[in-house]
TrEMBL record, chain B:
Species whose genome carries this gene: Psychrosphaera aquimarina
The protein's name in its UniProt record: Cupredoxin domain-containing protein
Domain of life: Bacteria
InterPro entries documented for this protein: Cupredoxin, EfeO_Cupredoxin
Occurrences of domain EfeO-type cupredoxin-like (ranges): 12-98
Length: 263, 118
């Protein structure tokens, strides 16, 4: 039970820690107080608990595919929020209030989509007093591991920002968002709402989904050892479409600056 | 080991359905035989008092099954081979295999021995 709790906590909580660290690294100079982080956590946990209370009837909707469908919808919304934040990171003319609201909602969505399953596990086994100690220790250990990884990523972000540019952090955030979005294809294929496609490749021999590196890469960039073609296409589109938008924005800016009369 | 044979369901155009029961943190049957290149609907009934998460890295499927409830998972057409699954919350006991066989080759069916790989 102890090891299982640690593994489940890592699987579900690590993506939450990673997204908060990425957003912190990207926007801490624009928004000095970090209160948005605590609001996002509180809002996310509250909404996750509300979902948990209603999960029985939600999961029975749409012929038993309610949970997958809701999760897929929330992940899509989360993706658009995170890409909007990357756009804002490139644009200095956005109000602090709007930026704070987007950060809170993005953080909260990450907590809901990733944290609900762990809450189901916790509430399901907490009632058994034999498990309570293992669960508590597992959560403490899992939190410690997540915090350690987050601190390392936080310092890496600062190093990359100083050594190269903020664009690298934006790229990592886009990769993270694309990874989360591509999981929608798995959810919807499981619910028979998307057609099943063949497996594109199997890299399980090199980096297994069940090993620690596989879990870390899955949380960071949505790594799957045996993705379907639809999964790969979704992932690539989720990266390419924002970049096309940025290239178009940059070329519009260059045209505008060329058209301005010389003083 | 209990073997569940689904090849006759190929003649039926509806998605073939396999019923699996989870009881005392064990899957029954633990070995499921399905034909290759055929979508299959897995219906898992949790007879325990605690939730379980059906998880399979091989199949890229994971779903929570609430106590005394059923959950449905669609498995995409698969090539011949063994695909393992397990209960994420009780991985040492709740384990199973989906064995995909060539639909064109005749298979023996037998029900004998223990119902669980453990």
């Amino acid at each position: 039970m102890l090891i299982n709790t640690v593994i489940l906590f890592l699987r579900d909580a690590l993506p939450i820690f990673i997204v908060f660290v990425l957003l912190l690294g990207l926007f801490e100079e624009k928004i000095k107080p970090r209160s948005w982080l605590y609001f996002a956590l509180m809002l996310g946990i509250t909404l996750a608990l509300i979902l948990l209370v209603n999960i029985n009837w939600v999961s029975e909707l749409l012929d038993g595919t309610g949970h997958e469908t809701l999760n897929a919808l929330l992940i899509c919304i989360s993706y658009f929020m995170l890409i909007s934040l990357v756009v804002i990171a490139n644009n200095s003319g956005v109000s602090i209030h709007k930026l704070t609201a987007l950060l809170i909602i993005s953080g909260a969505l990450s907590v809901i989509t990733n944290g609900t399953d762990f809450l189901i596990f916790l509430t399901g086994f907490w009632s058994n007093t034999d498990n309570a100690t293992s669960l508590s220790l597992g959560i403490i250990l899992g939190s410690g591991i997540c915090f350690s990884i987050s601190v390392l990523i936080y310092f890496l972000i600062h190093y990359l920002k100083e050594r190269f540019s903020e664009k690298i952090i934006q790229t990592i955030l886009i990769l993270y968002s694309a990874g989360q979005l591509s999981k929608v294809t798995i959810l919807l294929a499981q619910a028979d709402l998307l057609p099943a496609t063949a497996i594109a490749w199997n890299s399980d021999v090199y980096i297994s989904d069940s090993k620690e590196l596989g879990h870390l890469l899955s949380s960071l960039i949505g790594y799957e050892s045996s993705p379907t073609y639809l999964h790969v296409i979704t992932y690539l589109l989720a990266i390419i479409v924002p970049y096309i938008y940025f290239l178009k924005q940059n070329s519009n800016r260059k045209i505008t600056s060329c058209e301005e009369p010389n003083t | 080991m209990t073997l569940v044979l689904l090849l006759p369901m190929l003649v039926n155009s509806k998605t073939p359905e396999v019923n699996v029961t989870l009881h005392n943190h064990l899957f029954y049957p633990a070995v499921i035989i399905i034909p290759s290149d055929q979508k299959v609907k897995l219906v898992i009934e949790n007879k325990d008092d605690t939730p379980e998460e059906f998880d399979s890295f091989d199949l890229n499927r994971e779903k929570v099954i609430f106590p005394h409830k059923k959950a449905t998972i669609f498995i995409s057409p698969l090539s011949v081979g063994d695909y393992s699954f397990f209960g994420e919350y009780n991985p040492n006991s709740a384990k199973g295999i989906i064995r995909v066989v060539d639909a064109n080759k005749p298979q023996k069916s037998s029900i004998s021995g223990d119902e669980n790989v453990n």
